[in-house]
Amino acid sequence: MTPRGFAPDEIRARATAAQDLMARARIDALLLTTEPEIRYFTGFLTRFWESPTRPWFVVLPQGGDPIAVIPSIGAELMARAGVNDIRTWPSPRPGDDGTTLLAATLNAHGPRIGLPMGDETHLRMPLAQFDALRGLCPALDFTHDAGITRTLRMVKSDAEIAKIATACAIADRAFARVPDIAAPGVPLATVFRDFQALCLAEGADTVPYLAGAAGQGGYDDVISPATDAPLMPGDVLMLDTGLTFDGYFCDFDRNFALGDTGLDADHDRLVAAVEAGRAAAMPGARASDVHAAMRAAEAPAPGAAVRLGHGLGMQLTEWPSLSPFDQTVLQAGMVLTLEPCVATEAGRILVLEENIVLTETGNRALSTPATRMVRL
Amino acid sequence: MTPRGFAPDEIRARATAAQDLMARARIDALLLTTEPEIRYFTGFLTRFWESPTRPWFVVLPQGGDPIAVIPSIGAELMARAGVNDIRTWPSPRPGDDGTTLLAATLNAHGPRIGLPMGDETHLRMPLAQFDALRGLCPALDFTHDAGITRTLRMVKSDAEIAKIATACAIADRAFARVPDIAAPGVPLATVFRDFQALCLAEGADTVPYLAGAAGQGGYDDVISPATDAPLMPGDVLMLDTGLTFDGYFCDFDRNFALGDTGLDADHDRLVAAVEAGRAAAMPGARASDVHAAMRAAEAPAPGAAVRLGHGLGMQLTEWPSLSPFDQTVLQAGMVLTLEPCVATEAGRILVLEENIVLTETGNRALSTPATRMVRL
Q1: N- to C-terminal Cα separation, chain B
Q2: Based on the domain organization, do B18 and B88 belong to the same domain?
Q3: HSE-CB for B274 with a 13 A CA cutoff
Q4: Which positions fall inside the Peptidase M24 domain (chains A, B) (predicted)?
Q5: What is the C-alpha to C-alpha distance for residues B139 and A12, in angstroms, rounded to an integer?
Q6: Is residue B3 in some structural domain?
Q7: Element (H, E) at B86
Q8: CB neighbour burial string for A95-109, b if at least 16 within 10 angstroms, e if fewer
Q9: Chain B neighbours among A 227-256 (CB < 8 Å)?
Q10: Does A107 share its domain with A145?
């Protein structure tokens, strides 16, 4: 049974590692506003982020422990997470929804405040509030966090990897039961609904993501919601899930054949591309190398496939990108998806996705690699 | 059967209504970046937003149709949603992840660009990208959207109300089946997992939110994830769900009694507070009036209950707030949660939440109002 939560030492070590990098980048404090950033440095896990109403802040000073500047509704849970310095206000409070409290905290720890502001980040607070905050902190320099949150979060600890592995195992078991819920005549929307229930039955805490498609000779895109169109003989059915265990995602898909799809050779190319990706994915290689290896194996690939996989963890998609432009040097502990895509004879696409973790010597599969399409 | 999607006329009418307000506020174009903002003006519905990797933009000019400036992976679905002007780039693309394309679009429609930047909003793009965008648009004035998106989204159409009502009916049916899954000895985490499956079985598309708690004499907070602690005789069990139908949420809770909780009188006070809220919730009243009516009925209430309900729709929580500070004048078509909270003798809390829609003459219940705690 994978334990829930993290040892207090691990949460503390993340802060210490960040502080080392902050010292080198001459950053006096980090300002964090999003769910994964705040959870990473505190262990604070709640689905309450689904409500966009209230802003939440954590300040990590160069010396000392993280400071939570949060709505009072979260104080109890943040304290249980192990944070000692919790400053609250009764939110929502228009006009000053934590702004003065945050300004006072930052002013005591400046002047250089690092914010995650690079690719795949955003600032989770109203823009007008950020402007007001800067007005209250005229002596502070709000600057780039020098990629510190990205650098740290990209390399997962053993405890994090165990949670992702557990999520993958749950999805493996749910995919194995798809023959129970999908057959010709069943509407795709019903398959989506029932598959999410299978994920829960197999142990998922939540199912934040499910995409998929069904069609003859492949499908057209992989982001559409399901329609009530029934599955047809000869269809390929693809389901791509991001379920969570203790706040960590898996992200992989499976293709199922409703009888004879004529796509077995295409699927074989996808399996070969995944194998080529795995052969290339080792410490010291670059993210772009893994992309190139898969790209070579999957030909002819559709032109739009600029990204054939990505990081995975507290979010469904994280850095790095397996893309020609991403020169990130891979390290043990990075968790990646390998997601090759082929164009079919029908002018459609077929996508396969697997999850792996990099080890000291290569990598280890987290999803049980698919070798062929299961027949329904 | 509630129809999915919206008539093209309705989506167009939203843009026209925004353009009327833009003319009055002398805004030349709106820049929208978040899921609900973009969906509201285009009908673009996908769970792909779970991935934080790519920025998405919609520009609504003062004259003409919405312009989607989006990653190419979304072009197919955006076209099916009915948007004609779609401009794409192969995202992710570090260094220019749509920035120049967006800048060119905005520069053609400026100079005054309105952004949602008030309470309960955020800018869903990297801060560094926003800085780069402003650098590419020196002649533009990025300004407050004058609350236009808030004003429009607060009042729901009949088609939107039907979707929320459907979500509520699904949750009603799922709550009715809680006796099948909860009993003394069952771990709370198992109840959470099984209740989400019940929501799906009853017709939910997704279950983005489930919170809850169980305890003797009430509970301490309503945002914690479930633990493996088993339910005990005498516990009150509370489940609060935000499930969706076609992209629209319900948000209400139910309290269940595992035998004798000693909390029947507290629950009666909550029911009375909901009734007081419903009596006050009518067109022309203010959000603060509804708060005051519930507050008077629920005494003694915990000090922290600054908000006793809120708007509901494409997000789990939306404007207005049923709070002393919110002077929003209520109108027919607004969908609200009524969420009184009482302090119990044990020093804990008990919360009840219902969903209503304002009509021309008062309001109509969307969740079937609870009258007592169901015994498990």
Answers
A1: 32
A2: yes
A3: 25
A4: 163-360
A5: 47
A6: no
A7: strand B85-89
A8: eebbbebbbebbeeb
A9: 242
A10: yes
